[in-house]
Known about the structure:
By secondary structure, the protein is of the alpha+beta class. It has helices spanning about 15-25, 35-40, 45-55, 80-85, 95-105, 180-185, 185-205, 225-235, 265-280, 300-325, 350-365, 370-375, and strands at about 60-65, 70-75, 110-115, 120-130, 135, 145-150, 155, 160-165, 210-215, 250-255, 335-340. Helix 3 crosses helix 5, helix 3 (about 45-55) runs parallel beside helix 9 and helix 7 (about 185-205) runs antiparallel to helix 9 (about 265-280). The protein starts with 16 loop residues before the first helix and ends in a 48-residue tail after the last helix.
Amino acid sequence: MSILSKWFGQRIGLTDSGFWGAFFGGSNWAQKPVTIDTALQLSTVWACVRLLAGTIATLPLNLYERTAAGQVVASRHTLQSLLHVSPNADQTPLEFIEGLVASIALQGMGYALKDINGAGDVSSLIPWDPDKIRPVRLPDGRLVYRTSYPDGTQKDLPPDRVFVVKGFMNGANRDVGLSVIQYGTQTFGNALATEETVGRTFANGLTSAGYFQLDNPAIKLDKEKRAQLQSILDDFAGASNAGKQILLEAGLSWKPMAINPKDAQMLEERGFNVEEICRWFQVPPFMIGHTEKTTSWGTGLEQQILGFQKFVLNTYLKRIEEAINLRLLKPEERGTFFAKFSIEGLLRGDSAARAELYSSAGQNGWLNRDEVRELEDWPAIGQAGGGQVFTVQSNLMDLAQMPGHKPSAGALPRETTTTPPGG
């Protein structure tokens, strides 16, 4: 199906980059159409976006309330149900967040239309294609979101009806984030052209382009003989015929016209494309299976996760958290409620790291046993069993309180008076 088919019946505007990019083939030197659809055909783009979206979507996301006793999950708030149970009638929270992050990573913007109930609370979030909605500043400075619907109609929605998460911005436009697909078109175009060249090479049975030459230039083939020769050559063309031997008659000899894939460094070029695309998405190549070169991130899964978390994931998490606080909470609620991802969800599959974390928490008194058990979805011990008691190690005590302790030579006693030498 054509990549333009999804636009049938739609009103096309000058800012509909998806349509115009598909129509004109994209603006890149390789002259390859670079759109969401074509870019995702590259395994590196698919892997990077899937890693970012899938990792963030699996992290627990909750709405918290600030109380006198500390922050607690706002289980009775409507928004907590949207974030933790179901954002709409058709999606799970994981599916919704995964699609939102994928849109941010590829197009620089994530959108969802808000349904508002009678109490003024958000009751549903419907994901919307960034190509079908765009921010518009009216002459009086007001912001509206020009939204295209499947039936071809358009409507200007106010900001309180649209949930927006913006990607990386350069400050030139406060309303939109920058699209990786748009700005990385040269890299993606080169990668697509390389993949096409490799595919055509295999389709031709790993043979390079060339021509047949007659030893006697005085001999001329008429139209019938040319067609006969071409028919014979077609029986040996294609990957399915690779390895077959052809008998050249009438003094014909093969003359290659192009360099072979090895000379063209095709494999090296494909590896370079992987690294280039990973730079656009800030994903370390080894995390999507490109292990050709060693990493300088340290050793062990923990160090790899920490590096990815600090330099990549935290940016996405912060953008989504702040967007929820600003655009889904009522103004009067923002000082009391806030959304937050639990980054500890990354340790869910690492039992050794979780055990070390819980051990430190229990021994240093910043989690009790029941709180640790709750994180593991285990039943509470209860107050009677000491599960709600905060404990610390008793071996870390003031040295002066140790029985029989004597200050070492040169150390001053705890009293403020000192004895002169020889006194």
